[in-house]
Amino acid sequence: MLKTFIERPVLSTVVSIFLIVLGIIGIYRLPVEQYPDIAPPTVRVSATYSGANAEAVLNSVIIPLEEQINGVEDMTYMTSSAYNGGEASISVYFKQSADPDIATVNVQNRVSQASSLLPSEVNESGITVEKSLSGILVMVQLKSTNEDYDSKFLQNYAEINVLPQLKRISGVGGVDVLGAGKYSMRIWLKPDVMRSYSITSAEVISALQDQNIEAAPGELGVSGNQTFQYSLKFTGKLKSTEEFGDIIVRSENSQILRLKDVADVELGAESYTTIIRGDGYPATLMAISQTAGSNAQDIIAAVKAQMKIAAKNFPPGIGYSYQMDASNFLNASIEKVIKTLIEVFLLVLFIILVFLQNYRASFIPAVAVPVSIVGTFFFLSLLGFSINLLTLFALVLAIGMVVDDAIVVVEAVQVNMEKGMSAKDATLAAMKIIVAPVIVTTLVLVAVFCAC
């Protein structure tokens, strides 16, 4: 086979051009990410049991869910955590070959089977089942220097005005907002006042459930000989602190006890466990992750373009910045590879010119090395790899091996030509001697680096 390529230079040229074309196609098709997708597919189950401690969450939420989830298809193992704030979290890990979407559906079906075993409060608050996405690409911080906008406002503004646009970007797997949480109606009970009226928290919860509902009261004049037909309207969900404060907790002997008499009602945050500040000002963070097989650089560029558009409508005093950007690492790695390739070319040309003093011999590695390196990208795409920090590092090592092999081949051919052989005969004679050592040396280096 080697003799065929040596004796037919046109065929060798066509094959080289073909490899370069395939390599260029592979470069544009390869996904770009910071790290390779080697983490096993993971599905996360989250639930909330308000007011419960970690032990109660473990016994009443974690254990029933684990018993039903255990043994789901392609599962390897799972871990769980229970917190004193009533939070429950279960991470289910699957085989590397498992489809994350199918795994999520299977876990969701198992969680549905456990719903009857869970406390009603847990079912009412909802159980979240979602595939876990690793590898945060970029973290965007919203910061407010205006005293009128606190961290709660920032998070709700991001949820309403920024997140929908970011989630629509192709390749974005998820956007997590970190901060104080959404606006929530906070009802702070007064134990001493409640004791004086002999009121329990269960009565307050019952009043909330009865008077803060969406209902369909129906219509008047639907049947019978009625001239007009009226659709009845119900107040629906309460919205303001005044409306919540006017909820009737107890009514006896024309005496009405309202919620504001036994509790402080305010519009606060959903959670007070997380506080984020930027340069001393209220802030919130948006962590953006990518889907498997997507191009990280394209996603980051699209996110930055979308943030520029969104920033035009920001209220006065609100700005944004990037706290983490994976493209910085990727760009630095790509620049290092290009720099290494240029340095290698110059070094090879210098070495061959100095020791062999032959311009024609210097031209051969300058052509052979790009063909080998560019063609590599086609095979990376064919084998399902991506352009990431590890493959770029491997490419740097490959450049060194290719250059070393090119110098060995050129030197061996030059030695035979100095003995009086023609270029063709010198090449054939050199190949018979050095082909096996070159292949063995390359395989040994590959095996060593793979073992490391």
Distance between the termini: 33 Å
Query: Strand content of the residues, in percent?
Result: 15-25%
Could you give the count of β-strands? Answer: 15
Q: What share of the residues lie within helices?
A: 40-55%
Q: How many helical elements?
A: 15
Roughly how many Å is the radius of gyration?
A: 34 Å
Q: What string, H for helix and E for strand, traces the elements in order?
A: HHEHEEHHEEHEEHHEEHEEHEEEHEHHHH
Which secondary-structure class do the elements indicate? alpha+beta
What global shape is seen? elongated
Mean pLDDT: 83
- Could you describe the largest sheet, including whether it forms a barrel? 5 strands, antiparallel
- Which regions have little confidence, pLDDT < 50, spanning 5+ residues? none
Structure commentary:
The chain is an alpha+beta fold. Helices cover 52% and strands 20% of the residues. It is built from 15 helices and 15 strands. Strands 5, 6, 13, 14 and 15 form a five-stranded antiparallel sheet that branches. β13 and β14 form a beta hairpin. The longest helix has 30 residues. The two termini are 33 Å apart. The model has no long low-confidence stretch (mean pLDDT 83).
